[in-house]
Amino acid sequence: MSALDPVTLAVMQSGLQQVCNEMDLAFVRAAFSPVISEALDRSDGIYHKDDGALIAQGELGLPVFVGTMQFSTRAVIERVGRAGEVRPGDMFVVNDPYLGGTHLMDVRFVMPFCYQGALFAWLANTGHWPDTGGSVPGGFSANATEIEQEGLRLPPVKLYKEGEIDQEILSIILSNIRIADQRIGDIKAQAAALHVGGARLTALLDKYGEALVSDCIVELRRRAARQMRAKIATIPDGNYRGTAYVDSDGVVDEPLEIVMAVRKAGEELYFDMTGSSPPCRGPMNSVIATTKSAIYLAIKHIFPEVPINAGTFEPLHIAEPRGTFLYAEYPRPVSGCAAEVSQRIAEAVFDALVEAIPERLFAAPAGTSGNFALGGFDPAKGRAYVMYVISGGGYGGSAACDGLTNGCSTIGISKTTPIEVFEQRYPVLFEEYSLHEGSGGAGRQRGGFGVNYRVRLRRGTARASMVMDHGRVGPNGALGGATGGVNTVAVERKSGVYRPPHLSKDQDIELEEGDVVRVSTPGGGGYGEPLQREPALVARDVRRGYYTADEAARLFGVVLMGEPPDVDAPATAARRAQLAAE
Amino acid sequence: MSAAIVGVDVGGTFTDLVLMEPGSQAVRIAKVPSTVENQAFGVLATLETVEARLDRVANISHGTTITTNALLERKVARCGLITTQGFRDVLELGRRTRPQPYGLIGSFEPLIPRELRLEVPERMAADGQVLVPLDEEAVRAAAARLAALGCEALVIHFLHSYRNPAHERRAVEIAASAWPNAYITAGHAILSEYREYERGTTAAVNAAIQPVLHRYMERLQGELSARGFAHDLLVMQGNGGSVSSRIVAEAAVKTVMSGPASGVMAAAAIARAVGAEKLITFDAGGTSCDVGLVQDGVPQVTSEMELEYAMPIHVPMVDVHTIGAGGGSIAFLNDAGLLQVGPLSAGAAPGPICYGRGGTRPTLTDANLVLGRLDPEGLLAVDNPVTRDRVRDVIAAEVGAPLGLDGEAAAAAVLRIANDRMAGAIRMVSLARGHDPRDFTLFAFGGAGPMHAAALARELSIPRVMIPARPGITNAIGCIAADLRHDYVNTLNTPLAALEIAEARAVLEAQIAEGRATIAREGVAVDDVAFLHFADMQFEGQTHLLTLPIAGPAVTVAELQEDFEAAYWERFKVELPEIRAVLVNLHSAAIGRRPAVPLAALAGRGQAATLAEAQSGVRQVWFESGWRETPIYERRQLPADAVFAGPAIIIQLDCTTVVEPGNRVALDTLGNLILEVEP
Hints:
The complex is a heterodimer of chains A (582) and B (679). Chain A is globular, with a radius of gyration of 24 Å. Chain A has three domains: 6-226, no CATH class; 362-530, no CATH class; 534-581, no CATH class. With 582 residues, chain A is of the alpha+beta class. Chain A has helices at 6-30, 34-37, 65-79, 167-174, 183-208, 210-232, 288-302, 336-353, 419-425, 535-543, 549-556, 569-581; strands at 42-48, 54-57, 91-94, 106-115, 118-128, 157-161, 164-165, 238-246, 256-265, 268-272, 316-318, 371-378, 383-389, 428-436, 450-457, 462-467, 488-493, 496-498, 505-511, 516-520, 560-561, 566-567. Chain B has 679 residues and is of the alpha+beta class. At the A-B interface, helix 1, helix 5, helix 6, helix 7 and helix 9 of A face helix 3, helix 7 and helix 11 of B.
């Protein structure tokens, strides 16, 4: 392999990457599901023909799919690919979480890619469909206790046979999901994206020849592993430990704990989640593919410059957490795993490593997707609707800067839908969309802020469901920084204010015309001692209304005077000395 | 002698001017260093260089980076915001993003800080119905407070104003009575489209740069008037058209990104004059390259530009895809031992090693020098000459040694990686959008464009390369070639099945009337006013838009349906008869056509009688097939009827063209070099 020309190798790396990026773009522009087209909840990649190992993945794809698609592609190969049953133009559809998946809404298409008559690789993509059936619109049932309540589960089935869609399979799918009329658009977009990838990959092979491309794929994998090992080597050897908590499973009102032991030895990292909570009754179980993927993406967030292929993950050794809620088996419900549990797993990794490499890391981000679904009937338009709202929150502070306000979820790159679009489409009125004051965890670099919104039902009746998190404990601070503000939900009804017993998760809350749902999302954790924060920055934050003058004194030890407020230096020095002594 | 016309473009490094006299073949050109602190000095210097008699100049068209730079450097006016109660944080919250897909560290400061964002009671519903009447007293108090807090510019941005602007209009009236100047921007007036964050940010951008642009224009106009110029300046906009300085500051945001736009406009005008209607434009400079697409002689326009992280600017602009690859891009080995070129750039200082200004890291320009493509003697702006051997040795040490390559092979590797990245940028605007590069001409300009164009065309199977007569002043030519242009966009968001075509026609008629009125207000002589019309459409349930040209007010529902389906098939190769089409926006561009520019005058006259006489030397040049003894030609000497085969190097003052072995070269009637490229 040493004979490979290094320049060709670099050209090939960007060539494979571009194939994937073009698939990502083709999918997102043509998709109907706003979860795909606006929220970018999809991913495309190229996988090894024998074992599904990741060859390249689009840079524009959703991070949580970084590792999972190689598991689901492998599942397709094991189930059907090896039977010699694949022909050019075939395409499989699969969403079974236990076969290398996430939750049921993430539907994968897997296509054998043949070059000159022989299987060369698999092309696969994942798109989050707005609905795949189940007990609640959107699939985020907060109190499901088995997967059948979460929706239609598809094992790998051949949806396209030699280029023709199988109408019988299609009719089974469309008969079992909501808002089926637009799904044909997503199905065609998802399939078309793989065809774009096929055409580009063929062009690449035509140009460089199959042997050279194959050699480069092997070498690029080796290089990625080498690059990841070089990064891992910068972490001091040792044993590290982090924790994170899920508020509850939605059914039993007790927190779920993630215990993350990380051992760094040489150029390898070992992850052990022994001691984490046992499998839960509600939908906060995580399938193993998602658990592993969450660790991969956490490491990728720490070392973003390492490219993604199967080699990237070679130095990461994950002990399978059997017997915990992080290793879900049939029929455990799993709808919360991709959106919430994966983010808590990533936070546990951050929490473990922040003391080891404080310059690289950051305090915990808000880390909840803030899923909120409102399903109802609009009497003015005479039709049923389902509205999905996702929310961001604050990021943690870091050595470099304060945390970002209203950042997107750790596992996502999804944008929120504009309020003007919600109000055009659904009978709702947003009365507020504002910065969640005080939610940024205090620190030398404070956390970013979460969001508040108030939404009023203008017509008809509706049911509200939500799967959020960090309602019990805010995102962790680091190196002396405070935790970020918690997530809160309140429903204002004529009968009074209702708060979900599980704080951040509930389903089928009945709403009447005029009722209001109020949500505040978490702020990020603070980084470093709050008493070391530059007083002028605290004063600025008070002028902006991020914190009150009282919070400035209480959390940061900064005393202000005047209007607009500025630092009272002697009083601040005294106050900080007093707080430090306490 | 007829009155002269002038185009003057301020770029990052140089300010360029071209002066032409319609009726005569006289052309004068100037290139002076840009003056960063006050761009007007550079502009005046170019006019002095060509000894322009300003009293005899009919027209000056000006491309300026002043607004783009002000935004990127955040040297903007202090602005205040008055907005709907409950929504003052829209501009700060954005749409839940982060700067990069991976990595959770990053920050963002909105253009208007929180303490200068005030709320007033008022509310429109999505259908334009008033839910909460405007609290006029609150508007008055908010404006007074913001003025007292030292705000120079004011933004008024209410929810759903694209549907019913009555509250915004009334609030502007009230605020204007107390505001000390005219710098008040209403959200709907800049962009009458839905999406509150993008519309609000676009309005905030406008307000933030309006005073900056206005002051600059007043100063420059004053200087020019004092020197005898009797007319209003024309200013280039990002949509590729120009606007009178009299009104440019009203919609200052439209001047952002006008530099890349004027290059694409020049390309379109030059190519159209010789019958080339489908172009990929490729402008490579020191730090980046800009790629654009011209179809049917018209540059592609987008309304979804993001100037930097979390700064969306949603006014129609020429669609230019930029990547950080240019002559100054630095070559290095990453952690995986793979060679990369850019996006980090050595810039103008310290610059490439061969400029002798202290640069120590190898750049693409250095690689071109080592490979014989650039002549060390011919470089502009060299402080202390550095020998080719010295440059080669640095490349050998920095790039070659770890890869096991000698200096020349390492330089070739740098060139190949850079070409690969540039080719990727071209693929993204062509192939990735459903266009076949084989149908296009690659129009290359900028200091580094013509050096790489032949290799890119070969890589991408583009059959023809066109290099204009004056590649280094293309943007200035774009300034004089550009027509007046104003864009109007209104949101309808109605399924075709439910569309009252009369309503759509009324929108288009109103856009036409507004366009005519605006052009009349500019007081600039135009031959006629023409209109382009577009529909932004989607299938019901989608969020992305597809823009298609439409006939204008005569359009029918059936045409919209058919044209949309055809465009969708063209772009995605997907048919969706199951799903309804929706008309989201109607967009009209009013174009005030200015007198044609005598482009032929730019060609100059071949000064040599034969090709041999145009040859100034010969040297060894590297190509993928190996080192070749290669003739060097002087561009301005090339006879008009010259036809020859590569390899060749063609040099002119600020630009070098590389002709690969196998290329056929000829000049067309406008003096453009045409390279026919064998795939």
